[in-house]
Amino acid sequence: MRIAITGAYGYSGQYMARRLLAAGHDLVAVTNSPNRQNPFGTRVPAVPFCFDDPARLEASLAGIDVLINNYWVRFDHPPLFTHARAVADVKTLFDAAGRAGVRRVVHISITNPDRSSDLPYFSGKAAMEEHLASTGLSYCVLRPTVLFGREDILIHNLAWALRRLPVFGIYGDGGYRLQPIHVDDLAAAAVARIDGPSGEIVDAIGPETFSYRALVEMIAEAVVARARIVSLPPGLAYQAIRLLGFLVRDVITTPEEIRGLMEERLHVASPPLGATRLSDWVRANARTLGRRYTSEMARRTDRRSAYRAN
After folding, report:
1. What share of the chain is helix, strand, coil (3-state, %, to 5)?
2. SS3 (DSSP) at 32
3. Helices (H), the chain
4. Distance between CA 30 and CA 2 in Å, rounded?
5. Is residue 168's pLDDT more than 90?
6. What is the pTM of this model?
């Protein structure tokens, strides 16, 4: 097939692209970063998003059989990026795909999307799913929770903080749950669904369920961390993280992300899709895990450098 993939030079999209190339498909990277270092050379040429020119975007998708969409933003950071802008852009992308004759869309969403939520991450994801369903395109939606892998930010930066801080604050009691999935397990699931029935919605979770406290304690034990893990009021814990973010010149987390975590929006009652256990992966990578900090803002603002493996 001829497949267009957003984020092919980034994190999860890069894993999907590797699997698609290995299966013999022709790829095009639809991207906001056409000048980013291309790990695939001429095998995956870049096409700019050009959301402000829908006709040009439609033309770039001509002859495409399947579109795999990873495009999204973690948090609002105007004027550079916002959830509302990302939702509008993805709707433009889906509409252009329909006009171009794309046969199928595989869309990466999130567990527990909710149009009525006041958390823009989850309401925005729900709005994109609804729009995709309205286009008449054949589609599959994959709903992952937290991703982990060599290029991830969350697990590596948790380990980085545990290695360096004397105290690590947990939001409240830390009893809320999450089900991390390895990035290549998500990639395998996406590639497996480039063909199939329309309207399929799949929770993409890993084989282990952790409370947040248990997750932090597991990482701390693996990396032989120095930090004392304590429960703090969520607002106080956030202020401490905000100060740390100022020191490293990054947005480490947001109040909305903390609420989503504590509301257990990263937990579902579904069978696991992935097979890779986070606990095994953390132990296997303990020597290098968290040795250096990885900046979300640096990745968002540097549109040339390749995503670095941690």
Report:
1. 40, 20, 45
2. coil
3. 12-22, 54-60, 83-100, 120-134, 154-164, 183-192, 212-223, 234-248, 255-262, 278-284, 296-301
4. 13
5. yes
6. 0.94
Task: For 114-137, give one letter per residue: b (16+ CB within 10 A) or e.
Answer: beebebbbbbbbbbbbebbbebeb
Phi/psi region, residue 218 (left: phi>0; alpha: psi -120 to 50; beta: rest), is alpha
List all residues 6 or more positions away from 155 whose beta carbon is below 8 Å from its beta carbon. 146, 148, 180, 219, 278, 282, 289
**Which residues on adjacent β-strands are paired with residue 211?**
177
pLDDT value at position 153? 93
**Cβ proximity of 185 and 12 under 8 Å:** no
Which of 93-102, 183-192, 300-309 shows the lowest per-residue confidence on average (mean pLDDT)?
Answer: 300-309
Structure tokens at 193: 């669904």
Would you state the pLDDT for residue 37? 81
Q: Which residues pair with 138 in a beta bridge?
A: 104
> Please, what is the end-to-end C-alpha distance for the chain in angstroms?
32
| Sole residue written with tokens 């919605």 | 201
pLDDT average, residue stretch 184-212: 97
